[in-house]
Please model this.
Amino acid sequence: MAEAQESHGWKWLLCAPALVVLVLAASGPLLIVVAYSFLTPGNMGGVVWDFSLEGWFRVFFRRDIFDPDVVTLNDAHLAVFWRSIWLSLQTTFLCAVLGFPTAWFIATRPPSSRTLWLFLITIPFWTNLLIRTFAIQEVIRNNGTINTVLQWMGVIDTPIQMMYTDFAILLGMAYVFMPLMVLPLYAAMDKLDFRLVEAGYDLYASRFQVLWHVILPLVKPGFIAGSILVFIPSIGAYVTPRVLGGGRTMMLGNLIALQFGQGRNWPLGAALAMLMLIIVVGALVFYLRWVNREEGRNA
Amino acid sequence: MLDRNFSVRRLPGFGAIAVFTFVMLYLPIVILVAFSFNEGVSQSSWDGFSLQWYEAAFQNRQVRDVSIRSLWLALVASGFATVLATLAALGTTRVSRFPGQTMIYALINQPLMVPEIVTGVALLIFVAAIKVQTGYTGMGYLVAAHTAFCIPFAYLPIRARLETMDSTLESAAADLYANHWQAFRYITLPLLVPGILAGFMLGFVISLDTVVITEFVKSAGQDTLPTYMLGQLRRTVTPEMNAIATLFLALSLCIVTAFFLITRKRGA
Model:
């Protein structure tokens, strides 16, 4: 048969146009970022083509203005890294705490109404992230919904400052990334064998014991997938902290953007972008290794 | 003692938290939409129903310009992306494994994994270099960037559709002396249409939503609706912004609903 010496050329030919666009406008430029992180910054932005490790150096350290040999840790940058990681972990946790019961609720509805509930979770996911961030801003502004209602009820006299704080960023990120936690959790629960849950109760387990020893281990893959899906865009967040966080509460994404704007230090910005990519790829590798290990155990 | 209403599917408090989550997801959007119809300038006290902010939005020349640019860009980019993704799906689905397939998957899905801000600054650097060399400052950069970003989203439903398609129909066509092209044109393609349509709509919504990449790639005077809104949010906003956001939401909602109906009815 002809299948035996089948040529693969036509498959590549079909993929070629898409690959060309992707390499030109997505993957290729990433390699240029790597190169730029090892160059010298130009005076008005851009770069001078001289090899330098200064960009990477300045990710963590800073030099004294008067004596460049005096080197100190760049605590402003470290504070931004810490805020990015800490807020992303908090966001993941908040999404998990609210997302688990929500996914459970959907998974235990009758099949006919389940589609509707799923649709309701999916809609916000496909509506503009900027608009959802704007919606949150309107709620937590000083003269926004929450403060107006609280003042009207007489609970507070002066508005609570929520905008431009870490709390605002946390709230905004949990709000926009929630569907990413609920959907994989639901997918795991949908496959859950409820006879196992029943068996737990038959053996006199309490609700909590069943939840902890039966349900959670069974839906763990959904939990891990959801956590990764929330953590990665949180680390990469730019719009939400820009709108809700203001200038003093930057996250990594805003620090990167700053270097290409007012900072005019493209090599530093390129190095910071690579750092973000390393964190994201690290999280993905961690996840894939976990999946492989679990599959190996269950095989 | 036996509880007659005992259900293994019930966990105490979970229903309440779920309802809370749904309310939290929708309440801000409902408030945003409601105040777009407010008579006054306030975003927190209701002064009566009015359509004046919609009128203001429609008469705002800048809003009209950026909206048209956004729609045009989404249409062109998702159109290109759909064609490219369809070809790539035909080349990678229902075929024997071939060397390099994993790399193709990685390239196609790459825009999904890399944070938008990283892609954004990467394109900023690249585009700046090309601009210096060629002097071209047109919409081509945005079209290319959006097309690349939409490809994985268009690819997913098309590939899913191909995978669930009955391949015996094509064999039947071949038995009836159809050549490869005829089998594709009269059997595969018509069956693939729902997937292609779904891929196009997904790409359209994604392009319409993209703000970070656009922000870094655009030249002067190339604002799209999202980047325009991002700029405006820094100032004190009037309900005109709510009106624009509401219209934007309505458009997205229509497309997403249509997407669901297409993929559900035919895909089942």
Summary: The beta strands of chain A are 40-41, 47-48, 61-63, 71-73. Chain A has a mean pLDDT of 90.
